[in-house]
Design a protein that fits this description.
The complex is a heterodimer. Chain A is of the alpha/beta class. Chain A has 14 helices and 17 strands. Chain B has a single domain, classed as Alpha-Beta Complex (Sufe protein. Chain: A), CATH 3.90.1010. Chain B is globular. The chains are: A alpha/beta, B alpha+beta.
């Protein structure tokens, strides 16, 4: 069945995720909403629980033993994320609440100091709102222009149009997703980065849908900013990462104030800590850091290459079985995709389909997937999206397909 | 409308009707059937202004009066939502404003649809009920005080 894992290995991996033994509406859960939030293995739950029970204390500046242990956990995961991404140094890793906050951080610091009224920012047409709205908010204050990199009918980005936009506008920044959350398309961000740099632009990559599913090396991509969230990679909610080149971070002013982001504070003036701490005001989510350690252990043990390969098998299977259903149209047919299949059904509202699938114990996401311009591009108000994980099975995808056929009989 | 046609009597009727269904699929099929009987809104009401916010599907609500009674027309682009809308119109339309504004609508719990009234549900039934009650309250000339959130 799988060329990557034996059946026993798949069963063993599934066994690590307690939620997969749940019943929903009296049926075994089929969890196909991994692009929204992935599930956590017991090891992640245990790591956070152990941290709360045995190590909980605020990080940094604490002289006592517990605070030192907590700091080791928190700063230790910074080292691991730096190595995961191939960062030049650990100081390039800034913790945020999630990819959304990481992008907002770039907008509010780098953007607010570097963008001018005559600047242009290129934003992909398929972006998650998190990589469009922060630029719109900033644009309403500064007055720079946002230009759209158009998408093609297969939900890839029009690379010729992109190059023409670079040529015409000489933008200050290109903000683009690595992988489309709505359609699964993998965009050629390394090529896009070198083209951006050739035209004097920086490039921010939303890695929320790529870092959990494939090996991502920021030096190989040669991007300038990259953001992702822990909760999409079997880790806890409330923790995300901004990676940025050291020289960019060094030049960026602080965003939020308070906590450990200062050097010296007085009423006559305050000086700020070095990056990354300059951008980490307030008590960080150190419990989540303990969870992320365990999530990284999990991914390292399985191997991100094998995760990717397995999810490619699932994607191919899903395209095959869903693509064979009359009245079902897959949106997102570019050759390079991650494990996401987005589709619409003739004459059936995605909401109705989602309700029926839920009753069958199948968790998919329906609606606009926080990418309304992407929906508009394809003339739909929403889609039904199945997104896979390393623990997904072909049988689960078959159950989805059978569920779709069943609901078509009632609803079409 | 006869004098004995009250909201609670209409609710009892719906509860009796839904008691026939044991299976979720039968229940939803019935809801979808109810939606098909909905007359929809007049074209000038099929605009963003008359859309109920908070729905993953689109819902349009058209309030009006017939004598002393408040009447509603409604529509949705999703079949299940349209059925839920039809249920609400069937129970509330053609009733006195004050009765609509005060109706506790316990029948939704009795027919196993209470989960749809949660404000977190994407179908926006809660928003729709709130909007119907706000219209009713406004038409009874008592401002917003009758608007009970579902």
């Amino acid at each position: 069945m799988s060329a990557v894992f034996s059946e026993a290995e798949i069963a063993e991996i599934r066994g690590r995720f307690p939620i997969l033994s749940r019943q929903v509406h009296g049926k075994p859960l089929v969890y196909l909403d991994n692009a929204a939030s992935s599930q956590v293995p017991s090891s992640v739950i245990d790591a956070m629980s152990d941290f709360e029970r045995n190590h909980r204390a605020n990080v940094h500046r604490g002289v006592h033993k517990l605070s030192q242990e907590a700091t080791e956990v928190h700063e230790g995961v910074r080292d691991r994320v730096a190595s995961l991404l191939g960062a030049a140094c650990r100081e390039e890793i800034v913790f945020a609440r999630g990819a959304t906050e990481a992008i907002n951080l770039v907008a509010c610091t780098w953007g607010a100091t570097n963008l001018r009224p005559d600047s242009v920012v290129l934003v992909g047409e398929l972006e998650h709102h998190a990589n469009l709205v922060p630029w719109q908010i900033l644009s309403s204050r500064i007055g720079f222009r946002i230009e759209k990199i158009p998408a093609l009918d297969d939900a890839s980005l029009d690379q010729a149009a992109y190059r023409a936009l670079l040529e015409r506008h000489h933008p200050a920044l290109v903000a683009v997703q690595h992988v489309s959350n709505a359609f699964g398309t993998v965009h050629p961000v390394a090529d896009m980065a070198s083209a951006a740099h050739a035209h004097g632009a920086l490039i921010l990559v939303d890695g929320a849908q790529s870092v959990p599913h494939r090996s991502v090396d920021v030096r190989a991509l040669d991007c300038d900013f990259l953001a992702f969230s822990a909760h999409k990679m079997h880790g806890p909610t409330g923790l995300g990462v901004l990676w940025a080149r050291k020289e960019l971070l060094d030049a960026m002013p602080p965003w939020q104030g308070g906590g450990d982001m200062i050097d010296k504070v007085s009423f006559s003036g305050t000086t700020f800590h070095e990056p990354p701490w300059r951008f980490e005001a307030g008590t960080p989510h150190y419990v989540a850091a303990a969870g992320l350690h365990a999530a990284l252990d999990f991914l390292e043990e399985i191997g991100i290459g094998r995760v990717h390969a397995r999810e490619q098998e699932l994607l191919a299977h899903a395209h095959e079985v869903l693509g064979a259903i009359p009245g079902l149209r897959i949106l997102g047919t570019a050759p390079d995709k991650e494990g996401v299949v987005s589709f619409v059904l003739d004459g059936i509202h995605h909401y109705d389909a989602g309700m029926f699938l839920d009753q069958m114990g199948i968790a998919v996401r329906t609606g606009h997937h926080c990418a309304q311009p992407a929906m508009e591009r394809f003339g739909v108000t929403g889609t039904i999206r199945a997104s896979f994980s390393v623990f997904t099975t072909e049988e689960e995808i078959d159950r989805l397909a059978a569920g779709v056929v069943r609901l078509q009989r009632v609803l079409a | 409308m006869t004098a004995i046609d009250t909201i609670s009597q209409r609710e009892a009727e719906v509860v009796e009707e839904f008691a026939l269904f044991d299976e979720w699929l039968d229940k939803y099929e019935h809801i979808i059937e109810l939606g098909k009987s909905l007359s929809g809104v007049d074209p000038e009401f099929r605009t963003d202004h008359w859309k109920v916010k908070g729905c993953q599907s689109q819902v349009w609500l058209q309030p009006g009066t017939e004598g002393d009674l408040v009447v509603f027309k409604a529509d949705s682009d999703a079949a299940i939502t349209k059925g839920l809308v039809a249920l609400m119109v069937r129970v509330l339309s053609g009733q006195p404003a004050e009765a609509i504004a005060r109706a506790p609508l316990g029948f939704l719990e009795s027919i196993g649809l209470r989960e749809h009234l949660s404000p977190t549900r994407a179908n926006g039934l809660a928003s729709m009920v709130k909007q119907m009650k706000l219209y009713a309250a406004a038409m009874s000339g008592r401002g917003n005080e009758g608007g009970q959130d579902g």
